[in-house]
UniProtKB/TrEMBL annotation:
InterPro entries: Aminotransferase_I/II_large, AON_synthase_class-II, AONS_Proteobacteria, PyrdxlP-dep_Trfase, PyrdxlP-dep_Trfase_major, PyrdxlP-dep_Trfase_small. Pyridoxal 5'-phosphate binds at G110, Y111, S181, H209, T236. Residues 42-382 form the Aminotransferase class I/classII large domain. Pfam families: Aminotran_1_2. Catalyzes the decarboxylative condensation of pimeloyl-[acyl-carrier protein] and L-alanine to produce 8-amino-7-oxononanoate (AON), [acyl-carrier protein], and carbon dioxide. Substrate binds at R23, H135, T354. It catalyses: 6-carboxyhexanoyl-[ACP] + L-alanine + H(+) = (8S)-8-amino-7-oxononanoate + holo-[ACP] + CO2. Belongs to the class-II pyridoxal-phosphate-dependent aminotransferase family. BioF subfamily. The modification N6-(pyridoxal phosphate)lysine is found at K239. This is 8-amino-7-oxononanoate synthase. It comes from the Bacteria. Its cofactor is pyridoxal 5'-phosphate.
Length: 386
């Protein structure tokens, strides 16, 4: 007997493939880095979030070996049962101190942290206010919270203010990417904080792409935001930090509340403690990482100068390691991405509907692990292809 639901999946997959929207996984051999072996081909990678080249850093790898000998592999239980290891605990303290908040909580992933914070702070009677370009995990989090979900046009704080003024919800939470993941632009933290104060809202900032990179590695919070009880800060730890997980930093009371109420924290096995030991070393590398950040900024400047007079395609105004080159149609982005790949350069094409119509782009990401020569190769190839 035929199984109709399975046949519908097959039709759905065929439709994606026909529309050139099927996603495929490339297989990486060896470590992540500026130079990778991917699908059997050696390539320069402009497609990771390993902005500081820490994913395979020798000091962090040494920390992993040392920790494995001390604590084995598995955490064995959730944090509230018996899985909360000294390494997890010490990392939380070090992270909170580094970003200038009173307490922190370590999660297994940024996705889970976002579900946790939004659902724990906003219930069915609350309202979440979100930038339309926020990361998918923040969209899912607001939907899971089950209250009102109100979105404002990207960066349109006048629209946000109107929405806040009209809100009758008791709990209000403004949530935004701090550095937007597909555009590379940075939110105006103090302007959002002004609105949060004026309309008595929480302000939750997801700094997945700024932590490790901005402000000596401390991320995108301003001094005012560090000091504000209403600001909750998220860093993900699989990007510039080069490891895995995510940390939320906030007022001690917020962290205490999350430990009691956040389901994606409570009902999951703690991450392997070895990862927290790696994160402690990563934090040291980030703190002492001014040379890496300076190199990264040089690469950003080199790319922007090199592509300023490109015939087709425009870099979006970004000072972060995310440098999107907008080329217009989906087909053009795919053509360029494939042609670059044939030259041993990997840059992903980001298409509609992930980004608005006619803004398909190459999402170039830079790392301090790149050499100036890697960036020059990309610039030359793009001129040759455009
Ligand atoms: C990557 C990312 C996340 C998810 O973090 P993971 O640790 O990879 O689950 C959340 N928010 C933003 C803005 C991101 O870019």
């Amino acid at each position: 007997m035929s199984f109709a639901a399975l046949a519908r999946l097959q039709q759905g997959l065929a439709a994606l493939s026909a529309d050139h929207l099927e996603r495929r996984r490339a297989v990486l051999e060896g470590p992540q880095g500026a130079h990778v072996t991917i699908n059997g081909q050696d390539a320069v990678s402009f497609c990771s979030n390993d902005y500081l080249g820490l994913a395979a850093d020798p000091a962090i790898v040494r920390a992993a070996h040392g920790a494995l000998d001390q604590c084995g592999v598995g955490a064995g239980a959730a944090h509230l049962i018996s899985g909360h290891h000294r390494f997890h605990h010490d990392f939380e303290d070090a992270f909170a101190r580094f970003v200038g908040k009173s307490a922190a909580l370590l999660f297994s992933t940024g996705y889970m942290a976002n579900l946790a914070v939004v659902t724990a702070l906003v219930g069915r009677h609350g309202e979440v206010f979100a930038d339309k370009l926020n990361h998918a995990s923040l969209v899912d989090a607001a939907q899971l919270a089950g209250g009102h979900f109100t979105r404002y046009r990207h960066g349109d704080l006048a629209q946000l203010e109107g929405q806040l003024a009209a809100s009758r919800a008791q709990e209000r939470l403004i949530v935004s990417d701090l550095v937007f993941s597909m555009d590379g632009d940075v939110v105006s933290v103090d302007a959002l904080l002004d609105l949060a104060e004026r309309y008595d809202a929480w302000l939750y900032l997801d700094d997945a792409h700024g932590f490790g990179v901005l402000n000596g590695g401390r991320g995108g919070l301003t001094e005012r935001a560090r000091a504000s009880d209403r600001v909750i800060y998220l860093a993900t730890l699989g990007k510039a930090a080069g490891v895995s997980g995510a940390a939320v930093a906030a007022h001690q009371t917020v962290i205490d509340w999350l430990v009691q109420k956040a389901r994606p924290y409570i009902y999951t096995t703690a991450s392997p403690p070895v990862l927290a030991a790696c994160l402690l070393e990563s934090l040291r590398q980030i703190e002492g990482g001014d040379a890496r950040r300076a190199r990264l900024q040089q690469h950003v400047a080199q790319l922007r100068t090199g592509l300023a007079d490109l015939k087709r395609g425009t870099l979006m105004p970004s000072a972060t390691p995310i440098q999107p080159l907008v080329v217009g149609a989906n087909a053009e982005a795919v053509r360029l991405s494939q042609a670059l790949r044939e030259r041993g350069l990997r840059v992903p094409a980001i298409r509609t509907p992930t980004v608005p119509a006619n803004t398909a782009r190459l999402r170039i990401t830079l790392s301090s692990a790149h050499a100036a020569d890697d960036v020059a190769r990309l610039v030359d190839a793009l001129h040759a292809l455009s």
